[in-house]
Amino acid sequence: MSSSAAESYFTQVQFQAKAGLCARLAVYKLDSDERREEGPGAFVLRHRGHAASISHDDHPPINPHEREEDTPTGQSELLSQRPVQNGSASEKTKGSLEGEEEQRGEEERSADEGFMGMTPLLQAHHAMERMEEFVHKVSTHTHHAMERMEEFVHKMWEGRWRVIPHDVLPDWLKDNDYLLHGHRPPMPSFRACFKSIFRIHTETGNIWTHLLGCLFFLGLGIVYMFRPNMSFVAPLQEKVAIGMFFLGAILCLSFSWLFHTVYCHSEGVSRVFSKLDYSGIAFLIVGSFVPWLYYSFYCSPQPCFIYLLVVCILGISAIIVSQCDFFATPQYRGVRAGVFVGLGLSGVVPTLHFVISEGLLRATTMGQMGWLLLMAALYITGACLYAARIPERFFPGKCDIWFHSHQLFHILVLAGAFVHFHGVSNLQEFRYTAGGGCAEYEGPL
Ligand SMILES: [Zn+2]
């Protein structure tokens, strides 16, 4: 079912509501006209199709409120005045209807007194009450119709959507124009967005790479945190330091797969989750720095603290910048990649400090510099593919579903995070083997 079907349904509901209101107003007007023509001789209370003729002579002018109270709520129809049908009533009203002049006089008198003895003010009040009743009924019907329409729209989006080409996407969903087909349409239902995880489209790979990665790091983190304390030199400090890496990785991957899942919900939701996604990258980078700086500068707490402070300030700056709306636009793709690569490359300064202090040999063996460089290479390659949109740039339309740049970037981020974890766990093992003392070692380690 398309969005135009939903619109036509909504238009139909609106039309029906308007038509109902017009019809009711017309009936009301006709009734009023009839009353005026018939005069105040008699009126008929119509109730469930039974017409009960009541002589005006038998009853004093009737208060409309009293008439409504006599009629069961929800069952009464419009009270209307009709020419009297049965014989006895006709006879009783006969006198009052004799002669045109008398009738005219009656009408003039009735105009002065108001309809059925009611003053014009009371008539107006009565009419207002009727109007309010109509409006209430119409609004209730419209409300129910809207509820039914919402249900219908939700059901429609839950399973009956089809992937659409890039050129019919709304502007806020247009991100990579080298992915020509296989896009999800806008789906204003979170349930539909989450169900789309199990469908094949341009975001399927992006979602699953980081959803599975998130579960992997969650499991690994739990196992690592529950390792016996005897495996650590300073269990609490070390678990906090390594825990920061796991926290950063889990936040980054969670925000990422959530963003890719609800990206097509609406412009507002997409904007909020894209900011979370970018913030998650900053969390991962800062979280990765913490255990590496902790172990690399284990015996030099002052530089360790300064480097941690600097990377935290840079990380917070990156998060602040990523809250700007322009940051998520396709034109700023290169800037985004640059901001996060720059944040990662701020690690060059402590790395040089470490290599100069330790020497290249010790840095590459005990300092796990090889793994660190591999991690940097994976992240930077991922960022370059992301910024340049390789390979889909060279094969537009061929990488719509699998192996487009964003998927490769996701896989490289996962690989980089795992390599970093491997390097950090080697640093931890080295520290455990060396013991907590620093006297026998020269330099930061
Ligand atoms: Zn992503």
TrEMBL record:
State the annotated membrane topology for this chain.
Answer: Multi-pass membrane protein
Tell me yes or no: is Ribosomal protein among this UniProt entry's keywords. no
Q: Where is the composition biased (Basic and acidic residues)?
A: 55-70
Bias (Polar residues) occurs at 72-90
One biological process term from GO is:
adiponectin-activated signaling pathway
Residues crossing the lipid bilayer are 207-226, 241-264, 276-294, 306-328, 335-356, 368-388, 408-425
Q: Where does Zn(2+) bind?
A: H260, H406, H410
Q: Carries keyword Kinase? A: no
UniProt keyword terms in alphabetical order: Membrane, Metal-binding, Transmembrane, Transmembrane helix, Zinc
Q: Which GO terms describe its cellular component?
A: plasma membrane
Which terms in the Gene Ontology molecular function aspect does this entry carry? metal ion binding; signaling receptor activity
Localization of this protein: Membrane
Q: Where is this region: Disordered?
A: 52-115
In terms of superkingdom, the source organism counts as: Eukaryota
- Report the sequence similarity comment from the record: Belongs to the ADIPOR family.
Q: What is this protein called?
A: Adiponectin receptor 2
Q: Please report the organism this UniProt entry assigns to the protein.
A: Alosa alosa (allis shad)
